[in-house]
Every structure is written in C-alpha cells, then in structure tokens.
Amino acid sequence: MLLAIARPTPRSVARRPAAIKRTPTPRSSLVCRADTARGLTQLLEQAQTTPENLTWTPATVVENREASADGSVRTLLLSVEDRVNFLEGRKVRHVQQDRRWIDDYRVPGQFVAARYCSHDQGSGSTDECSEMVVARRLLSLASSPYEARRDSALLDASLVELLVSRTGDDDERLLAELGPGSMIEVSRVAGEGFASLFNSSNNLVSCLEAGHPLLVIAAGVRGIAPVRAALSWTPVLAHAGSSRVNVFYIADSQTSAAYLVEWDMWREAGVVVNPLYLADGSAGNGAEQLLETALLDGPGGLAAVLGSTRGAKDAAVLISGLDGEAAARLTRKLVALGVSSENVMVAEY
C-alpha cells in the first residue's frame, strides 16, 4: 500500500511582510495560459478592470541594480513566493504535488502583469497597503527560463528579473526606485514567447530546431528585455555556434543601453551585436528609419545581414519593442525581400 505524506520544502527567499494585505482570489483560466496576442490583451484588460479575478503572487525585490552605464535602466531581481508540497513514500520519492509559479515560464518572451502599493514602499513603513495599483502594461521576464529554474531549484521561491527604466512611464519610474525588501505582486506567467502571428506552429523553438539563421530586432527597454532572455537561453547560445544570430538593438545612447557588459559574452557565443543609437542618427530620423538604414542600405543589403546561403526565405526574424504599426511596416518590407511571413515572430504584450 502506498503511503504518501506532504512535507514542506526548504525555507523561502520570499517573505511577505504585513505591508501588503493579500486578498484570496479565485484562479482564472485566462491567467493559466494566454496563448495569443488577444489573450495577452485580455489579461492586461482584466488586470486593470477586475484584478480580483486574477491570481496574484507576492514578490520581494531582492536587488535593484543598474543595467546601463548611466543607471537609468534598472534590473529588479524578484523573489516570487513559490512554495509547493512534495509527496514522500515508500514508492514515491519527492514528487511535486502542485505546479510551481515558475513552471509556466517555458520560453523567452513571456510576460507578467504587476501591481504595487500606491504609497512609497521604500520608506520602511509597516502599515498595511490599502490599495494596489496595476501597472498599465505587461512586463517581460528578462532572465531566461534556464536561469530562473537553476537559481530557484532549492528554494521556496522563484528568482526572476524584470527590466525597468527611470525614464519610462509612471509605473516604470516607480518600480525603478524600489529597493530591496519592497513588495509587489505578479500574475502568473502568460504568453507564448516569440511566435508567428500567421502560423501558431512557428515559434522560436521550431526555428532553432530547423536551423534557421536569426535576425533579432530589439527597440528600447521594452524590446531588449525579452531579447536578453533569449540570448541568455542555452538553446539560443548553442544555435549561435552553428547558425548566424544577428542582433540589432536600438537605444537612445550608449550610456543608456542595457546589458552593455553582457554583449561580449553574447559575442563570444557567436552572436553578432549591432547597437543603433538614436543620438547618433541623422537629424529627424527615428528608430524605424535608423533600423531600415542598417538592415537594407548597408553593403550587401539584407542578404549580408542574414548571412544565409539559402537566401532570405530561410531566415527567421524576432521583433520586440516596436509598436504594432512599425512592426507591420517592417514585416512587409522584409517579406517583399524574400523573408517568409510565417518566420517573422513577435513577442506580444
């Protein structure tokens, strides 16, 4: 006869102080998996209008460190409460009884909704938070799924990173000032990562399996966060050793560019990193024009950028950080030059 008892796992890194009053909320089928861009839009709308219908998990800011030379871009290391019970018995040894929060983070490019206390949490006040404010956009996980699982393996918490800017919107500016010990809450992980809008079976994983050369486009802080998760992911690093991975990253300036210290590590793995600075662009040229010039007007044009002997049709393109209209215009130009529309993948949020 099988005997099984539940026992607690090791101590958690994340602890929820009295400053946040956690209201029990029912699980939402939407939060468990938002499979499409429409699902992500619904997630954000529901977080704004009926947050009580979502599952929110407390997260502690473990570290707030600079991610750019001027300190304007910040990496928040979060410890998300993630305790589960394990079954132990004569025939069953250490079997996870429930899903962990981190189990939903499978591929780079996935997102969470976040909410924070409306008063200044950096003051050290222990007063209960009477109101939680939901951030007006979803936040990409900037650490790779591999890193998150490795760092969280022996903890009752999941360690993940968010990238925020002191020059972003109001929510980002507030989050960027949170110090260690501050508390926020996050939804369950949502989205399908980098995936085609035209063919649901085409995604980052399928392109890696097919050996497609990758053209990666990241615009601003919102764009580089999911790209950093991808470039730190073991399958992409292994892919860069045998196939071309060419990254174009648009930033305001070199001092405000994120992850500058990691570029050399990416390059050592075989990734080609091309920074494009708006401050150095021609007068009146925005991110779109700067990108188009770099991709299409250089020696050899797009073919040289892709570096594929089988032509543009063999390449896969990852786009992150461009708004919908800009991404659509760029996609049309790439398709006109031979890139398959099904191989253009966007991290939707």
TrEMBL record:
Residues 1-27 are annotated as: Disordered. InterPro entries: FAD-bd_FR_type, FNR_nucleotide-bd. It comes from the Eukaryota. One of its GO terms (molecular function) is oxidoreductase activity. Residues 54-196 form the FAD-binding FR-type domain. This is FAD-binding FR-type domain-containing protein. It comes from Chlorella vulgaris (Green alga).
